[in-house]
Design goal:
With 165 residues, this protein is mainly alpha-helical. Helices cover 67% and strands 2% of the residues.
């Protein structure tokens, strides 16, 4: 099994609570929160690169988790989304996903999976860029995140909301 398949299976298992998949609005807001945590970790002064990487990399893994969960929830395959403007940042894209979900949930405007997919691709590109700064790949970020999640959720499912932290 490839690392992508293994990661998607883990995300799919963890994104269910009480047998129900996480609502799209929860995933969109989670993505926004984790993207903000990357920003905070990236903009914090650290004594060395080791401290910086230990602050940023786990947050990048969490962003990747939410991107994958949204992709699964919308029935898309990872990497299927269209390219988007290179200057759009991860944070802008996360906010735009939340806006699309809000308009669908609150204003009745049909959700456009192609638009959301383009924003997700922007976030994946940003994760790759951040990972390169620390000598890692997208696979490295995913593997770090799987290790953290296996330790946090040994039973394989969320329990009591966010689980043990």
């Amino acid at each position: 099994m490839s690392w992508e398949q293994e990661y998607c299976e883990m995300v799919n298992e963890l994104m269910h609570k009480d047998g129900e998949p996480s609502p799209l609005w929860v995933l969109a807001l989670g993505l926004c929160g984790e993207a903000a945590e990357v920003s905070v970790a990236s903009n914090t002064a650290y004594d060395d690169d080791f401290q910086a990487s230990h602050a940023v990399l786990p947050e990048l893994g969490d962003v990747l988790w939410y991107v994958t969960a949204i992709t699964i929830r919308l029935g898309m395959r990872q990497g299927r989304a269209h390219a988007t403007a290179l200057d759009m940042t991860m944070y802008e894209a996360a906010g735009l996903i939340a806006d699309v979900v809000k308009k669908d949930a609150w204003h009745g405007k049909p959700l456009d999976p192609t638009k959301v997919g383009a924003y997700l691709e922007t976030i994946i590109s940003a994760i790759r860029g951040h990972a390169r700064c620390y000598g890692l790949t997208l696979e490295g970020i995913a593997r770090l995140n799987m290790k953290k999640l296996r330790a946090r959720y040994p039973g394989g499912v969320f329990a009591e909301g966010g689980g043990v932290r």
